[in-house]
Write a structure and sequence with these properties.
about 230 residues; mainly alpha; Arc Repressor Mutant, subunit A; Tetracycline Repressor, domain 2; disordered N terminus
């Protein structure tokens, strides 16, 4: 006696962590976190408040980011990526090195001079020890930016445009020079009469000083050739 074969049941739908994340909700959570961390500090914000601000459930926030520390780190990384995308540190075969450094310098200064970055800096530097929040900030923002720039410098050294005996130290010097007096004035609230021309002169002067220190001997800083020419 034959029996009608049973239909193969459909595969179960993935659930829990296996489900694809909603990128729109993730972006909304990050935007809410950036606003609230800036306005209220790290300790003054709860995951419930961030969820409400983003229009999602607290479970959704935890599903995307795990905990508040991870969310804080991701918010810092997202802010850096807005101003300094990873593509900014890629070698451009058709652009002179000085122009590439100017692009990086302008982007970095715009990042550190933004109201959000200044507010987060104040939040981090007013935390009592141990400086756990400071380490989170360093790892998510400054360290990642510096490591990306170190990679850029190594490429330029390999192309023969720069002579840099200590890439890590040179990258640190580059960003410290870019901060300079202007960033300290911003942190102190002394930004009255801050002109775009002053910022541009500061960035250009920093790049020229950096190139005088590390450009290949014989290459004038203002005329360092594009990477394509340097590799010929």
């Amino acid at each position: 006696m034959s029996s009608t074969p049973s239909k193969t049941p459909p595969p179960p739908r993935p659930s829990g962590p296996g489900r694809p994340k909603d990128l729109g909700k993730r972006a909304a959570i990050l935007e809410a976190a950036k606003r609230m961390f800036v306005s209220h500090g790290f300790e003054g914000v709860s995951m419930d408040q961030i969820a409400a601000e983003a229009g999602v459930s607290k479970l959704t926030v935890y599903s995307h980011f795990g905990d508040k520390e991870a969310l804080f780190s991701e918010a810092i990384s997202a802010k850096c990526e807005e101003q300094l995308s990873t593509g900014l540190f890629a070698i451009d075969a058709d652009t002179p090195l000085r122009e590439r450094l100017l692009e990086i310098g302008r982007g970095f200064f715009a990042l550190i001079a933004s109201e959000e970055a200044l507010a987060i800096h104040r939040v981090v530097t007013t935390q009592p020890p141990p400086a756990k929040l400071g380490q989170l900030f360093w790892d998510a923002g400054p360290r990642r930016v510096q490591e990306a720039f170190e990679g850029f410098l190594r490429e330029e050294v390999a192309a023969g445009a720069l002579e840099v005996p200590d890439v890590h130290r040179a990258a640190s010097q580059f960003f410290c020079l870019l901060k300079g007096e202007l960033h300290m004035r911003l942190l102190c609230g002394c930004n009255a009469g801050f002109a775009a021309e002053e910022v541009e002169a500061h960035v250009q002067g920093t790049i020229d000083m950096f190139l005088r220190a590390y450009a290949r001997p014989g290459d004038p800083p203002a005329a360092v050739a594009p990477a394509r020419s340097r590799r010929r």
